[in-house]
From TrEMBL:
PANTHER family: AMINOALKYLPHOSPHONATE N-ACETYLTRANSFERASE-RELATED (PTHR43877:SF2), AMINOALKYLPHOSPHONATE N-ACETYLTRANSFERASE-RELATED-RELATED (PTHR43877). Keywords: Acyltransferase, Transferase. This is GNAT family N-acetyltransferase. PROSITE patterns: GNAT. The keyword Protein biosynthesis does not apply. The keyword Transcription does not apply. Transmembrane segments: none annotated. Residues 3-174 form the N-acetyltransferase domain. Pfam families: Acetyltransf_1.
Length: 174
């Protein structure tokens, strides 16, 4: 099996959106309200592509995953409750968002590979700190995140909405 990641292009958008729709369906089946209000939409992914922040996972020539690696501070991470971000001399960080693996590729540990590559890209870009969040009920993603080496740091709120609590995680790359 050949696998790698590359920057997404506009031609990848239909496959990326299909993966996002599969993830939305899986979240709904698990009764997790994350991504059930229309977000993310194709306009969000196209903006990521245009900004060169979108990355696709390629397995045997097929798009098997989609993710965004933000290189600017996420305003949702400015305040954290029930914990704190780990202090570091490197205040700049990337954040991983909108990450999903296509149906048919689950159980192959591709998320481990994907996270490792996103961390490498982050480090190469000069960001030795990475942050990520997921819904409090999304136990599957919490497992994937901590397995990738991220530490739980507390709770953040999307757009400061009390019903939009997310577990927040951080990793510092030495």
């Amino acid at each position: 099996m050949s696998k790698y990641i590359r920057q997404a292009t506009s031609a990848d958008l239909p496959a990326m959106m299909a993966i996002i729709e599969q993830a939305k369906t899986a979240l709904a089946a698990d009764q997790i309200p994350q991504w059930q209000d229309g977000y993310p939409q194709s306009v969000d992914l196209q903006a990521d592509i245009d900004a060169k922040l979108a990355w696709v996972l390629i397995v045997d020539g097929q798009i098997a995953g989609t993710a965004t690696l933000l290189t600017t501070p996420d305003p949702n991470y400015a305040q954290i409750s029930d914990g704190s971000w780990k202090a570091t001399t490197h205040h700049r960080y990337t954040s991983i968002h909108r990450i999903a693996i296509a149906n048919g590729y689950h159980g192959q540990h591709l998320a481990d590979f994907y996270f490792s590559n996103l961390m490498t890209i982050s480090y190469q870009l000069g960001f030795p700190q990475i942050r990520i969040d997921t819904h409090l009920s999304n136990k599957r993603m919490q497992h994937v995140i901590t397995k990738a080496g991220f530490d739980y740091r507390g709770v953040i709120y999307i757009d400061h909405q009390p019903d939009e609590a997310r577990n927040a995680y951080q990793i510092l790359l030495p």
